[in-house]
Each structure stands twice: as structure tokens, then as C-alpha cells.
Amino acid sequence: MARTITEIQNSILEEKEKHEALKVLNSNSKASIWRLFTYVVAYVIFNLELLFDAHTEEINTTIAEQKKGSLKWYRNKALAFQYGFDLLPDLEDFNNENYTEEEIENSKIIKYSAVTEATTQSRLIIKIATETGDKLTPINEAELEAFTYYLEEIKYAGVAVTIVNYLPDLLKLGIKIKRDPLVLDANGNAIAPVNGIIKPIEKTITNYLKALPFNGELVVSKLTDQLKITTGVLDVKITQAESAWLDATSGVYENFKPIDMSVIPESGYFTTEDTEGKNLITITYVV
């Protein structure tokens, strides 16, 4: 781990004191030429150590992700899936010969994946999603058939796999905002929009959900913290936080259930619109 510039400079000064010929360099002024030289050298060493740290982290990450059979390996293999492409004989890689870079990239339809181990039985849960416009969506039936076959070809013998390719979990929120009437009107609109943001509360919620990693944990208190620092907000209270997920057997969403403190979406991601496109977020503004 990289030392601080001060730590490095102090080690240089300590080494200097060991050499009799350098004892004449005894000024205590930080602006003295010799002290400035030690600072410059310390700064260079500091940046070199940062590079060493970054290199070590990169190597460790590469090793972890290439370890065959690990959760990260399965995740990377899911993201590497190419729809419509054959696997090379006796290999886990696709045959990309005679295809352009654009065609290869377009065939990688799975944009998001997370792999976990089931807690109640010995199997892997592989959650996946693609992108349709600016929204996360499941892949279609034909694509799922090909992806399932692909996993059967590359997975390790004896490993049971469950693919989660669901519509997003529904997220219902009730929020009470104490607004600054100098900044927000009664409908939560910015009186003087900053950067063109007319509804800052809605923008904060959208940004928080977008920042969640795929299969990331939604923490109610963290969302509250983000709302509190939104322009025009004096205080905030989340009065309702519920989620519902798709029942894989019936294909119907289950009833909404309260979110105590946090929740990880069953599908890997959330939507704040119901199946009819109705907004599931209710915001009440008070002064």
C-alpha cells in the first residue's frame, strides 16, 4: 500500500541524518532548496507506489476472474455469450473467424449478470438482463434457449444452474418532503432549475437507482441520505418502501412486501412503473 508523501519524505530525511557529509543541510525552512528536492523526490516515489498498487490490484482481479469455476468466472462467461455464434470444438470460446468487430460486439446480448450460490441447496443462481433502449429487460425466449444450451456446454460437470431472466422487481415508494418554498414550488418543481433539472427529487431517485450495481442492494437509509442533500429539501421521510417480484411459475407479480432496511431484487434490478406503466412513487410536499 502506497505511503503518504510525508511518510516518504520523512524516511528520506532520516536517511540523510545518517550521512556526515549531509549534516550541513540543516535548514528548517520548508522553502529551502534541499528540502524542496526531498519533497519532489518523495512526490515521485509516492506516484510510483500508487502505480504499483494499481498494478497489483489489476493482477489480483485478473487472476480472480480467470479462476475457472469461480462465481466471477461464470459471470464473465455469461457476459461473453454471443447469440448466433458457434463454440470452438472442445473449447469454451466462440468461433469469431470471418466476423467483424461490430458483428461480434452486437452478438453479446447479455449486458448485465450476477452469479450467487443458493443458500438452501447446492446450485448457482445466474441472473441476467439485456438493454432495450435505456431500460434493462429480459432476453427473449429464443435467446434464452441458446444461452441455456451454452451454459450446459461450458459449466462444470455436476454443477446445477438456475437462470433468472425475469422482468424487473417493482419498487413502490411513498416519500414526504419538507420543501424550501424559495427553491421548490408546491409540486416539487424547481423555481430556478439548475442544469435543466425541473424535478430534482425525481432526478435524485432515478440517479440512485441507476447507480445501483446489477443485483445490488437497495438501502432505504442511503436513499434518504441522497434525498436530504437534494437542492430545495429541508427534511425527508420515506413513509412507504415495498417491492414485488415475478413468480417464475405463474408469471404474475406477487403481492408487495415491505422493505425493512434493505433489499436485493430477485430479478437483479428494479422498475418504478407497474405493468401498465403507472408510476409507483408517490411524493408529498409540505412546508
Question: What are the key terms here?
Answer:
single chain, 287 residues, alpha/beta, 3 domains, 5-stranded mixed β-sheet, 4-stranded mixed β-sheet, 7 helices, 11 strands, 34% helix, flat
Secondary-structure element order, as H and E? HHHHEEEHEEHEHEEEEE
User: Which structural class do you get from the secondary structure elements?
Assistant: alpha/beta
* Poorly predicted parts: none
User: What is the 3D form?
Assistant: flat
E-strand count: 11
Whole-number count of domains: 3
**Structural Rg:** 27 Å
Beta-strand proportion: 15-25%
- Report how far the terminal alpha carbons are from each other: 50 Å
Mean pLDDT: 91
| Largest beta-sheet details | 5 strands, mixed
Measured as a percent range, the helix fraction is 25-40%
Number of helices: 7
Q: Would you kindly provide a written description of the structure presented here, covering whatever features stand out?
A:
The chain is α/β, with parallel strands linked by helices and 287 residues long. It has three domains: 5-66; 71-164, no CATH class; 169-286, no CATH class. Helix content is 34%, strand content 21%. The chain is built from seven helices and eleven strands. It has helices at 5-16, 33-66, 71-79, 101-107, 141-154, 200-211, 220-228, and strands at residues 112-117, 124-132, 135-137, 161-164, 169-179, 218-219, 233-244, 257-258, 262-263, 270-271, 281-286. Strands 5, 7, 8, 10 and 11 form a five-stranded mixed β-sheet that branches. Strands 1, 2, 3 and 4 form a four-stranded mixed β-sheet that branches. Helix 1 (5-16) packs across helix 2. 18% of the residues are buried.
